[in-house]
From TrEMBL:
This is O-methyltransferase C-terminal domain-containing protein. It holds the Pfam family Methyltransf_2. Residues 209-406 form the O-methyltransferase C-terminal domain. One of its GO terms (biological process) is methylation. Gene3D superfamilies: Vaccinia Virus protein VP39 (3.40.50.150), Winged helix-like DNA-binding domain superfamily/Winged helix DNA-binding domain (1.10.10.10). GO terms for molecular function: O-methyltransferase activity. Keywords: Methyltransferase, S-adenosyl-L-methionine, Transferase. It comes from Zasmidium cellare ATCC 36951.
Length: 430
């Protein structure tokens, strides 16, 4: 848990690292699964550290291992080393952006190696720059140099080679997320306590007067990278679609109609349609986003395609679907300050028939130190990113309840659950 670092010693944390590592290794051995190593075989590079069906106690051991290892590093690092260590991270991000920009992961063979000279020719990049970038990336275990002058994949870089969406995410991180964070202090200095969505760190970093989603709508390259980012974020454990599927009784909807508001490419709706073959779903998003989503959905299997439709709609306009059984807001309201959030919720409330339900899947911030260090760090990142992008923030549960009551005093959080490993809570509103 996040609070465990208040009294434990270096040795106690180190013992926890050893104990949890042994537990994970023993589980892998019992299942005939390869024990995690720094240099996995070519076959093992395609595998996750743990099998997807690993039991809960093993998943918890892995989380405890990560947290304890971080605490060991924190204790062992002197204050004088803090800033030099911190300076490593933006350079790693810059290197991954550079590698993705020039499609380097896809040019490295798997299995096998490639020389720096051959790779520089394939990518049409300067040899000396390539060496500098790759060798910095190797410090993050992104690529390996098994023999002098020759590059090979690691488990991490091999995954990037297979995923265009991961590469889009890396570009979005470098082009938007990091610049926004760096200009956060400038935005506060310039505009103080403003809640305007055009007076943000995003506006300074991207040099635009447009709010985020208007800029997204007008900038195709930015929109593509954001879509890749969203695709990856929704597939990571913290925001995995599985948590949405498991966190609510979707069978209770039967063959009812679900409206996935702000659903982007429809990844959540598609997963729900595959899991519940009676559900009918409408994915709503801005018209230009929907154009891309429809094209991507053209290859879906007929059994899903026939039940998932797409509709151009801004959630700041009145909700056109009046006969839905359930409205879904997944990772939407955290983008918006309370005034805009109330507008979004108000349009849904006005469209809802008496028996309709609302499901919100979003962040509910914990009390400090009450969850794992890694998980809390990710939630705090999300909170700051919302401030930097929208002058919004991630809400605590009491703030969620107050927001809903301002829209409709009769609205209550009927049920809220945060599945293990999820950064998001699933809230049923009735």
């Amino acid at each position: 848990m996040g609070s465990m670092g208040k009294s434990q010693t270096l040795v106690e944390f180190a013992d926890q690292v050893a104990d949890t590592a042994r537990a994970i290794a023993a589980f892998c051995k019992s299942r005939g699964y390869p024990e995690p190593t720094l240099h996995p075989s070519e076959t093992e590079k395609a595998l996750d550290i743990l099998p997807v069906d690993a039991p809960l106690d093993v998943q918890i051991a892995r989380q405890d291992l990560i947290d304890a290892a971080k605490r060991v590093q924190q204790i062992a690092t002197d204050p004088a080393q803090f800033l030099p260590e911190l300076a490593v991270h933006p350079q790693h991000i810059a290197c991954i952006q550079w590698l993705c920009r020039f499609h380097i992961p896809g040019l490295v063979p798997s299995p096998g190696t490639v020389s720096y000279e051959e790779l520089a020719n394939l990518a049409n990049v300067p040899l000396d720059v390539l060496k500098s970038v790759v060798r910095m990336a190797i410090c993050a275990h992104f690529f390996d140099e098994p023999k002098p002058g020759h590059i090979a994949h690691t488990r991490l870089s091999a995954h990037f080679a297979k995923s265009a969406a991961l590469q889009d995410w890396a570009e979005f991180l470098a082009d938007a997320t990091v610049p926004m964070a760096i200009r956060f202090a400038d935005a506060t200095q310039r505009w103080g306590a403003t809640k305007s969505k055009t007076e943000t760190a995003f506006n300074i970093a991207l040099d635009t007067d447009l709010p985020f989603f208007d800029y997204l709508n007008k900038t195709p390259d930015f929109r593509k990278r954001f879509a890749g980012y969203m695709q990856c974020v929704t597939s990571t454990q913290g925001t995995a679609i599985e948590h949405l599927i498991e966190g609510f009784d979707w069978a209770s909807v039967g063959n009812g109609l679900v409206v996935d508001i702000g659903g982007s490419s429809g990844h959540a709706s598609i997963a729900l349609a595959r899991s519940y073959p009676e559900l009918r779903l409408i994915v709503q998003d801005l018209p230009k986003v929907i154009e891309t989503s429809v094209a991507q959905a053209s290859s879906l299997e007929d059994s899903v395609k026939s039940r998932v439709t797409f509709q151009g709609h801004s959630f700041f306009e009145p909700q056109p679907v009046k006969d839905a059984d359930l409205y879904l807001l997944r990772m939407i309201l955290h983008d918006w300050p309370n005034d805009e959030a109330k507008t979004i919720l108000g349009h849904i409330r006005q469209a809802m028939k008496p028996t309709a339900r609302l499901v919100i899947m979003d962040t509910a911030l914990p009390e400090p130190g009450t969850i794992s260090l890694s998980q809390e760090s990710q939630l705090r990142v999300r909170d700051l990113t919302m401030r930097e992008t929208f002058n919004a923030h991630e809400r605590e549960m009491e703030e969620w309840k107050a927001l809903l009551a301002e829209v409709d005093k009769g609205w209550k959080v009927k049920r809220a659950v945060q599945p293990f490993g999820s950064n998001l809570s699933v809230m049923e509103i009735a």
